[in-house]
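As described in the Methods, two query proteins were run sequentially through the folding procedure within a single session, without resetting any intermediate state between them. The first query and its resulting structure tokens are shown here.
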Amino acid sequence: MKDRGKPFFFPVTDQDFGDFTAGFANVTLYTAFLKMKNPHLRLSQLLDMRRKLGGDESGSLFKVPDLVTDNGAIRQFYEIKPNSATGLRDGDEKLANLSAFCDFFKVSYKPGTAWSPDKRLLLYDGVIEAVELRVKVFFHFFRVQPGLIVYELCIEAGIAIEDIVAKIIVGVVVLAIIFGPEILAGVAAAGETIGPLIPAGGLIPVLAR
């Protein structure tokens, strides 16, 4: 939305759809968006596809993309997946399904190229006091091919650290971001899982700032 210069998704804006809701609200909104922007589509077709969707997209031609822009000049869709072998495979499959839908119903949306981000957002910058190790954790997202945006969590430290330690650090930081810094006291108390790397409450002052 920042890149598009828009504060909201559809239905507040009529040019940008985002699959940001839970349950069937996203299907309802996407159906309405498709009909509004593509008058040749019959409502009966869309309602029938929605009915066949059931509680799951699997096995249905009707897929809901993560992002769509349709301002007349730009008619593109994007899928957002983790930067992993599974995420890339699932992204390719979803893009193929979306393209098949567009071809079948003569909807001229294409995998997106207008948005091509490559950004790292700093999530955490602090010291693991038990080992006096300063680390930074970044959220990195970028486009790997038309229509596919991937994301990853990256850790940066002054020394080489074991992969498992890096994953523990990232996991704890993500928990703190989602649930608030108070969660770290409970995480750190589970010493058998985290070990001596993170003392009880050790990261709380840094994450609270």
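Immediately afterward, the second query was submitted; its sequence and tokens are:
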Amino acid sequence: MTVGLLAVGLLASGCVRVHAALVVSTSDLVSGSVLVAALPTAESSEGPQLEIPTEMASRVTTKAYSADGYVGNTVTFNNLDFDEVTALAASISNENATYHIAFQRAGDLVTMDGSVDLSQLPPSGVDVQLKVNFPGPVTRSNGSQDDETVSWVMKPGGVTSFSATDQYALGNSRGWRFWALSLGGGTAIISVFILGLALLARRRNLKKERAYLAAAPV
């Protein structure tokens, strides 16, 4: 989903395409992919070049992109923590655009806040989109919400702020209802199992008693 947005800082004035998407896990780790491309110019025919922090090299890969006249890269990343997402954004920033993105946890609430300044880009020919999928119910956002996914379309020629708050327990991949049902079902199964053992033991004892009585002298 979206960290391509983070690469907007590399884009010079002109027609650009940034489609980014993030997936946030219940372990507070972020994975995703982002397309960062632009129409070739006299100064550059290769599109925006991205600099990936060396400490993230094992979890971030890039692949060349070319379509509809746009050239650039698709960046894919896995299991970056919240601070690393912010650091990745900072590592590819420059004077052509400014942005901010940060995740914070308070109890079971995780808040994402950020902004993108596209004031240096023309009002036409800019396609910058962000989507974030959260693991729990989204309680607040200023984007377009579809269940647990929130999306934004960034407007060129100005600053766009984005924010969302999600509710989930750290490390809990299932809702409390699932665990309540599982616990209830597990308790019932254990009770049946114990009852079965008791009946089996009772039957064995009856067989032993009958055998003993049959073998006893009259």
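Residues 1-13, 174-198 have pLDDT under 50 and may be disordered. We note this only descriptively and draw no conclusion about the first query from it.
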